[in-house]
Design goal:
By secondary structure, this protein is of the alpha+beta class. It has 2 domains: 113 residues; 50 residues, OB fold (Dihydrolipoamide Acetyltransferase, E2P). Helices cover 56% and strands 19% of the residues. Strands 3-2-1-4-5 form a 5-stranded antiparallel beta sheet, with helices on one face. The longest helix is centred in the last third of the chain and has 32 residues. It is elongated, with a radius of gyration of 21 Å. This is DUF3592 domain-containing protein. Keywords: Membrane, Transmembrane, Transmembrane helix. It comes from Allokutzneria albata (Kibdelosporangium albatum).
């Protein structure tokens, strides 16, 4: 029981810690991505040790992905939502290299604003479209489409991941307890 509780608390600490790292490193997603990935792998190993079979540990990858995405993307979106400046702009040009698109934006008075980056094969934007963007006055977080900034949704994904890990940890702890009581130590 103590082992299951330890793994459970460890999962919560991973989620909170990686979110804190992402908040401290706003504007640099590489650090929280690396630390989050490594910590999620360590959690999978701890879950494997708790119940001595890989199948439940592998199932923890989906909530781990929710935790990773939520913790990494919540911080910049929260920064844009809290201190960002909203502007209405017009897309004046687009350049694409492979699946990376760069849209040139002009403000309401016709002056060139910034560029909006889009990574993907089929962007929703076309030259001449009017969109609302949020830009960071400090320049730390890249410009984003205001319709796609959703810090609450990222936080909800993070919480769903933590709940998923919690359920899997309780299940693994119970399974390990029952198997040890029956004298079965390892899976065949």
């Amino acid at each position: 029981m103590l082992a299951a509780l330890s793994v459970l608390v460890f999962g919560w600490v991973i989620a909170a810690g990686n979110t804190g790292i992402a908040c401290a490193a706003v504007g640099n997603d590489v650090i929280p991505i690396i630390t989050g990935t490594l910590l999620c792998l360590v959690f999978m190993i701890a879950l494997r040790v708790l119940h001595r079979a890989w199948w439940l540990a592998v199932l923890s990858a989906l909530p781990g992905l929710l935790i990773l995405v939520g913790s990494v993307q919540h911080a910049p979106e929260a920064a844009l939502a809290s201190r960002g400046i909203r502007e209405n702009v017009v897309i004046t040009a687009v350049s694409a290299v492979s699946t990376n698109h760069r849209f040139t934006l002009a403000g309401a008075n016709g002056e060139l604003a910034q560029t909006l980056e889009y990574r993907g094969s089929d962007p929703d934007y076309r030259v001449g479209d009017r969109i609302e963007v949020i830009r960071d006055p400090e320049g730390v977080v890249p410009l984003e489409d205001a319709a796609k900034v959703d810090p609450r949704g990222r936080l909800n994904g993070l919480v769903m991941g933590v709940v998923g890990w919690s359920v899997l940890t309780v299940l693994a702890g119970w399974r390990g307890h029952v198997r040890r009581r029956k004298g079965v130590v390892y899976d065949d």
